[in-house]
Design goal:
The complex is a heterodimer. Chain A is mainly alpha-helical. Chain A has two domains: 64 residues; 321 residues, ABC transporter involved in vitamin B12 uptake, BtuC, CATH 1.10.3470. Helix content of chain A is 68%, strand content 4%. Chain A is built from 16 helices and four strands. In chain A, strand 1 and strand 2 form a beta hairpin. In chain A, helix 5 packs antiparallel against helix 6 and helix 5 packs across helix 13. By secondary structure, chain B is mostly helical. Chain B has two domains: 206 residues, no CATH class; 73 residues. In chain B, the strands form two sheets. Chain B has a two-stranded antiparallel ribbon with strand order 1-4. A two-stranded antiparallel ribbon of chain B has the order 2-3. In chain B, a hairpin with a 2-residue loop joins strand 2 and strand 3. Chain B starts with 14 loop residues before the first helix and ends in a 14-residue tail after the last helix. The interface between A and B is large, with 60 and 67 residues.
């Protein structure tokens, strides 16, 4: 893989046999990969397992890898190494300009989001998808506090989502309290769980912490699944009360002496009312999350999170207590997860441990990572693409997680800090003249 | 994971026998975990990352093993020791290719990047591999007819027999043999020397003429090979596999590696054995529903109270 950059022209210095050899080797590896899992499929037949051969798939994948590797190598040979460094700069600049544009585009997005249900093209389906996307945006923003700002890789975020959903469901079903009382309670429970779980483990280093949080996520799911008397196990909890508009329910029939949303405002009954209400509810919740994050970044604790992410030892020597600082990030992130969870419970009306698997954590993490850790607008873009995009291609559902995993790897390899990551210095000294002092 | 043979309620009379039976089952399970744990511990030792996709490499090994068994069945090779040997060799080879590719595509470009990047990449790889196998091999559980049957009865007291099946003997023997070979490779060969050198100081090793990239690749290859063996043993022992087995097995094996002291080979074996025993005894004497919680709790407790594990060296973070 010799790169001879000093020769002029591009065709002259391409060592074609070497490229072909490289592509051939890649194809050989692909053949090794493909021959078993792709080429032969085990099928259930009467009396055991049979085999089904797909040599055409093997040939196809080998051909694709050969061509792909060849083109990649050709591209690498013909492009000067300087260009590759330039690409990084270009992406950084895009990240920066998106960040800058977000200042203008942010309010615009909010206006669009508010106007969406009233658009002529919008219907129940679109509002439903938008609600789902907003839910993931909120989860992404919540996790962004933990992963993006504090730099703690939390693989069990779904645990707090589950705690929020279950505490809302159980309180609402057993004590008959309204959504507006349950919501803060659910957030509080989730935050408490964050503190309880976080306290012992936050002293651990980055990757150990990730695995331990993963373990906690699974423990909570297993407990939800098996503690039948309390959570009704795999049957889940159904009949969770729907939210009401400050005490006015969204129901067609009204009990004697009470009013519902449509009678109070003198409207005709429409099932859209509730859907639009849920949409605005999650929009408000998500915006609160965003606003909170943006403001807390400017507070000492927010600064401490970001400093801790960059260098823990330096922070320690400057008198920041790492465990307490991390704990606040963990608890606040958990609280927003709990809010989102209780919204999820009230929207679905039914929850079961099925909804809180590791895959869910991974999806939320993917949104944060792909968007660029620490970037608020990046989370929005990633959530719209990943959740909205896959909702539009429903028939490709089975490829969704495959693409998720692949995208995570590719983005990490391409830009290890996330697609739109860009860091504004929190403090800027006097701008040095361009070019710097030499 | 499911239980081995001989699971019945403990009784007053057969208490000792019941204990013995669980001991045998636990050691068998621990051998499988130990083989997977070696892959985690080696990779962690050499490049300091958690290879989250290792559990899925184990799963792929099990699938390749199943396919090879079926092909051998069609080809008419039914003499069990020969069939097993062929399956082991083929699966080790083909799974190693997966191990190598995963490292080359997902981890090598990230060397020298910030600490969490390889872990996120590994999680992506794990999700990718699971869905890759699910799409290509189907989501349903794949059963396999038992290859090795029968066993010896060690003890029998009114109705409760302590059974040592041939499968269990085979698993323990294979594991011990492989681990011996592996320990010899690490201790005696030039590859092992290069690996130990890279583990101590990668830059210095490179200065002294060791091809670090190649050594790391070979570490992944050997780890994948051992995981493939674990996959086949799992397949033969339990008789069913699906695309999701790698997740739990991977986490438990990682727990084993941490428990034994990550980075330490004897630690991985010891940790695997302990996790196998703890899990088996937990489900035998307490509740079977919460046995996964047991493994996770151990992980959490070990990390909190003794992050270096039983046999690990303390890691000092330098500025």
């Amino acid at each position: 893989m010799a790169v001879e950059a000093d020769k002029p022209g591009w065709a002259a210095n391409v060592d074609l046999p070497a490229l072909l050899k490289e592509a051939g080797l890649a194809a050989l590896v692909m053949f090794g990969l493909a021959i078993s899992i792709i080429g032969i499929r085990t099928v259930t037949i009467t009396g055991g397992l049979g085999l089904e051969y797909r040599w055409d798939w093997v040939a196809f994948s080998v051909a694709v890898v050969f061509a792909g590797r060849f083109l990649l190598a050709l591209r690498r040979e013909t492009r000067s190494p300087a260009k590759r460094a330039e690409r990084e700069v270009v992406m950084d600049r895009i990240g920066a300009s998106v960040q800058k544009a977000a200042k203008v585009a942010g309010p615009l997005f909010i206006v669009i989001a508010i106007a969406l249900p009233w658009m002529p093209f919008s219907n129940r389906y679109i509002v439903d998808i938008a609600t789902l996307v907003l839910m993931y945006i909120m989860l992404g923003w919540g996790l962004n506090i933990v992963v993006g700002l504090a730099g703690l890789l939390d693989l069990g975020y779904v645990a707090f989502y589950a705690v929020g959903a279950y505490s809302y469901a159980l309180i609402a079903v057993h004590f008959d309290l309204s959504f507006w009382i349950c919501l803060p309670l659910a957030g509080l429970f989730a935050a408490t769980f964050g503190v309880i779980l976080g306290f012992p483990v936050l002293r651990l280093r980055g990757d150990y912490l990730a695995i331990v949080t993963l373990g906690f996520g699974e423990i909570i799911r297993v407990v939800l699944l098996n503690w039948y008397e309390f959570t009704r196990g795999p049957d889940g909890i159904s009949g969770i009360p729907r939210p009401s508009f400050f005490g006015l329910p969204f129901s067609r029939r009204v009990q004697e002496g009470e009013q519902s949303f449509h009678t109070f405002f003198g409207l005709d009954f429409s099932s859209m009312h509730r859907i639009m209400f849920l949409y605005y509810l999650i929009l408000v919740l998500a915006l609160i999350t965003n606003f909170f994050t943006l403001r807390i970044r400017k507070l000492p604790v927010g600064r401490a999170w970001e400093a801790l992410r960059e260098d823990e030892i330096a922070c320690r020597s400057l008198g920041i207590n790492p465990t307490n600082t991390k704990l606040t990030a963990f608890a606040i992130g958990a609280m927003f997860g709990g809010f989102a969870g209780s919204f999820f419970a009230t929207r679905q009306g039914f929850i079961s441990p099925e909804s809180f698997t590791f895959v869910e954590s991974a999806v939320i993490l993917a949104i944060v990572v792909l968007g660029g850790m620490g970037s608020q607008i990046g989370v929005v873009i990633a959530a719209v693409l990943l959740i909205g995009g896959t909702e539009l291609f429903r028939e490709l559902e089975q490829f969704r997680m495959l693409a998720f995993g692949g995208a995570m790897v590719l983005i990490m390899v391409w830009r290890p800090r996330g697609l739109l990551s860009h860091r504004d210095p929190t403090l800027r000294l006097n701008d040095t003249p361009k070019g710097g002092t030499s | 994971m499911k239980q081995g043979p001989g699971r019945t309620a403990p009784r007053q009379t057969g208490y000792m026998e019941y204990f013995l039976q669980q001991l045998i089952n636990g050691v068998t399970l621990g051998a499988i975990y130990g083989l997977i744990a070696i892959g985690y511990t080696m990779v962690y030792g050499i490049i300091g990352m958690i290879n989250f996709a290792h559990g899925d490499i184990f799963m792929i090994g099990a699938f390749i093993g199943l396919i090879t068994f079926l092909i051998l069945g069609l080809a008419g090779i039914t003499w069990v020791p020969l069939a097993l040997l062929i399956v082991l060799v083929v699966a080790m080879l083909l799974t190693s290719v997966y191990g190598w590719t995963v490292e080359r595509l997902a981890y090598r470009p990230l060397r020298g990047s910030h600490r969490l990047a390889p872990l996120i990449s590994a999680i992506g790889m794990s999700i990718f591999l699971q869905n890759y196998v699910q799409l290509l091999q189907g989501a349903r559980v794949r059963p396999m007819p038992p290859v090795v049957q029968g066993g010896v009865t060690l003890m029998e007291t009114d109705g409760f027999a302590v059974q040592l099946s041939y499968v269990q003997i085979m698993i323990v023997v294979t594991t011990v043999a492989l681990m011996t070979i592996f320990a010899l490779i690490i201790a005696r060969t030039s590859l092992g020397r290069a690996q130990r050198a890279c583990e101590q100081d990668r830059t210095m090793a490179a200065l002294l003429g060791i091809n670090v990239d190649r050594t790391i690749s070979l570490t992944f290859v050997t780890g994948a090979g051992l995981a493939a063996v674990a996959g086949i043993l799992f397949l033969v022992y339990y008789g069913v596999i699906d695309f999701y087995i790698g997740f739990l097995a991977g986490i438990k094996a990682f727990t084993a590696a941490v428990l034994g002291g990550i980075g330490s080979l004897p630690g991985a074996m010891l940790g695997g054995l302990l996790i196998g025993l703890i899990e088996t005894f937990w489900s035998a004497y307490f509740t079977i529903e919460y046995k996964d919680v047991a493994a996770f709790s151990i992980l959490v407790l070990v990390l909190i109270f003794r992050p270096t594990g039983l046999l690990g060296r303390p890691e000092v973070e330098k500025v």
